[in-house]
Each structure stands twice: as C-alpha cells, then as structure tokens.
Specification:
This protein is α+β, with helices and mostly antiparallel strands and 169 residues long. It is built from three helices and seven strands; from the N terminus they run H-E-E-E-E-E-E-E-H-H. The chain has a single domain, classed as Peptide Deformylase. The longest helix is centred in the C-terminal third of the chain and has 17 residues. Its EC number is 3.5.1.88. It is an enzyme of class 3 (hydrolase).
Amino acid sequence: MAVREIRKYPDKVLKQKASPVATINQDLQDLIDDMIETMYAAPGVGLAAPQVGVSKRLAVIDISAKGAEIPLLVLINPVILLKEGSIEFEEGCLSLPEYTAKIERAEKVIVRAMDRKGRETEMEAEGLLAIAMQHEIDHLDGVLLIDRISPIKREFFKKRHQKKIKSGK
C-alpha cells in the first residue's frame, strides 16, 4: 500500500468523465488499498480515483471519523438511482485544499455499485453519507465542487486561485 499524490485543481484528470471499471483484478485491489491509505492520510472522508490520477469509476468513503457507525465503503461503477429532498452542506474537497462552499445536494439517495469483490449492491443513504456519495460520484463525472457554486463565486475562486499561484503560496 502507498499514499498517492492527490491531484489538485486545475489538473485535467479532474475534469474528465471516468471510464467504467471493466475487471476486478489485483491491480484494482492495489489501487483500492492505495486510495484508502491516501484518504486516511489526507485526512478525508472520501476519495475518487481521478483524484489520484486514475480515470476509473471507483471511489472510497469512510465517514466514521465524523461519528457515523457506517463501515468503509468501496464503490465500483456507482450510479445514483434516486434522489430525494434537499440539504445544504458546507463541503470541502481534497483536490481544492483550503476551500469550502455551501452546496445543495439531495438529502437522500439510492446508489447502485459493486463492492471490491464485484458484488452488486444497492445502498440507501441520507445525511453526510448521501452528501459524500454525491460528491465522489461528481468526481467520476468530471464535476468539481466549484462547478456547483454560482458563476460569480466560481470566478472569485478562480481569481483567488491564480493570485495564490502567482504568489507561490
């Protein structure tokens, strides 16, 4: 297992729609293990494969650090089947360090995915788990947190980001 580099905005891999996972083999198991280690080292509650430079439809989520009694989830080729309700939540992202924004998401979702053994499962989630699932699935679709904020806030973010790069901080 290894901690991988987390890709940061504006890395192009973050804006690509990820390819479906075709086979569950040892390389995929190694990637899953690396992603879990990377997520915990960051620390974060979720990580999508594009965030470590791999354009595959794979994500890991563990919200137990936030007090939830839900075990670590590995989502292979996840699809949101149903969204209900609405909730606004202050989200951060490992690919956008030091930036948070209030994002409106579905309060409840039903997601179909395979686990790391290739078993298909449907999960109903609400609250933080539903938010984390939607956030990570967004990454698999090439959608970043800043794509979900208003155009004015997005421009402000981009200008601040450019200023930060120029100042070397």
